[in-house]
Specification:
single chain, 86 residues, mainly alpha, 3 helices, 81% helix, elongated
Length: 86
């Protein structure tokens, strides 16, 4: 599925349960977060090969930089109200 939607869902569940977050649930969330990040990385690798077929490397790196920056901005907006786990 959509990695971004999975991440949003995970963040919502974290917010809902963070005050009473037991170790088992925390471990599941960690595993899920890593799986989401791996899926996103796999997708980037896939598109990297496709981009290289039609673009020079110096254009591909700019695309990846823009995508990373946009992802960081969106994530920052999502998490700005999330309390940190204690």
């Amino acid at each position: 599925g959509d990695g971004f939607a999975r991440l949003v869902d995970l963040l919502k569940r974290f917010i809902a349960s963070y005050r009473s977050l037991d170790d088992g649930t925390a471990e599941q969330m960690i595993d899920e977060m890593l799986a989401i990040q791996q899926a996103q990385l796999d997708l980037k690798k896939h598109y990297n090969r496709r981009f290289h077929d039609v673009l020079p490397a110096n254009k591909v790196i700019r695309l990846l930089q823009i995508e990373n920056k946009l992802g960081a901005i969106i994530l920052a907006q999502l998490v700005k109200d999330i309390p940190l786990a204690k």
